[in-house]
Amino acid sequence: MFGLVNAAGQAKPKSKPARVKRRRDVKRAENYSAVSGTLNPSPRGMCGSRDSLSETYYHSGTALYTQVGDYIYTERRTSKTKFLENGYYLVSHDGRTFLSISVDNGRVSSVENCR
Question: Is residue 57 a contact partner of residue 71, using CB atoms and an 8 Å limit?
C-alpha cells in the first residue's frame, strides 16, 4: 500500500512505458547530383539512341558526371530500396553530353561516353 497513494489520498496514475523514437535508416541525400536517363534492355546501340530521357536519377559521386563506383538511386534518398535496377541506361546531366552506363546492385559498373 505504501507509495500507491499521493498526499491527497488519491491513487497515483500508472506510468506508461516510454516510447523510443528510432532514427530512420533512410536519409535525404542532399548533395547528390541529378541526371536524366532512360532504361535500355540491351547494351548494344545505347549510345546511338536519343530516346526521351524521361526519368531522373541521383548519383552519390562528387563529380558532375556519373562515374564507375557511384551509387545511383531512383529518389534523392540513401536507401538500398531506392537503388536503380540492374541494367543499361542512357543518362545526361545537361541534355548535350550523354553517357551509357551499366548498373549492378545499385552501383555504376561501367561508363561509356557517347559521342
Answer: no
CA distances from 8 to 4, 5, 11, 16, 79 (A): 12, 8, 9, 22, 54
Q: Could you give the CA distance from residue 58 to residue 75 in angstroms, rounded to a whole number?
A: 7
C-alpha cell at 11: 491513487
Residue-wise pLDDT tens digits, 35-91: 888 887 666 666 766 667 888 898 888 888 889 999 998 887 777 788 889 999 888
Q: Are 43 and 62 in contact (CB under 8 A)?
A: no
Determine the Cα–Cα distance for residues 69 and 71; give it in Å rounded to an integer.
Answer: 6
| DSSP helix/strand/coil, 25 | coil
Which helix H or strand E contains 74, and what residues bound it?
A: none
Where in the chain are the domains? 27-114
Angle (nearest 5°) at CA 16 between 15 and 17: 120
The pTM for the full model equals 0.68
